[in-house]
C-alpha cells in the first residue's frame, strides 16, 4: 500500500513537471537598453575591439551571451556585437521597424491618430495591452502603436 501511494505521488509530481515544461517558453528573451548617452557596440568583448557603431540612450538590444563584464547582443536588424554590461539597463524602449507607424490615442485602430513615427525611431515604453504598446516619442507625444510595428520589450 505504501509503495502504491509513493508511485502515485511520483507520477503526479512527474505529470505536473511535464505540464510546466510544456507551458514554459524554451528560452525567455532577455532584453537590455543602453543607459549611457552614447555607447560603442564592439566586435568583441574588450575596449580594444573594433567599434562597429554607436548606440544612443534607450536603444533596445537582445542579450545573446555573456562574457565577463560584457554582453553579446543583437538589434532588431539582427546586427550583433558586444557592449559593456555596466552601460546597459532595463528601462523599456522600442524601435519602430515599419516604414511608418501611427501613434494612436488608444490601443486599437479605431482610436484617433495623434502623430506618426518612422522606421528607426526610438520610443520610450510606457505600457502594453492586447498587442499594443503605449509609447512616448522624443517630442513628448504619448500614445499607442501596434506591437507588430515595433521591436523591443
Give a count of the beta strands, DSSP E runs of length 2 or more.
14
Strand order of the largest sheet: 6-5-4-1-7
| Helical segment count | 1
What does the oligomeric state look like here?
single chain
Poorly predicted runs of 5 or more residues: 14-26
Euclidean distance between termini CA atoms: 52 Å
What's the structural blueprint in terms of helices and strands?
Layout lengths: L1 H22 L7 E4 L3 E5 L8 E6 L3 E8 L2 E5 L5 E5 L3 E2 L3 E4 L3 E5 L8 E6 L3 E8 L2 E5 L5 E5 L3 E3 L1
Antiparallel strand pairs: 1-4, 1-7, 2-3, 4-5, 5-6, 8-11, 8-14, 9-10, 11-12, 12-13
Can I get a quick summary?
With 153 residues, the chain is mainly β. It has one helix at 2-23, and strands at 31-34, 38-42, 51-56, 60-67, 70-74, 80-84, 88-89, 93-96, 100-104, 113-118, 122-129, 132-136, 142-146, 150-152.
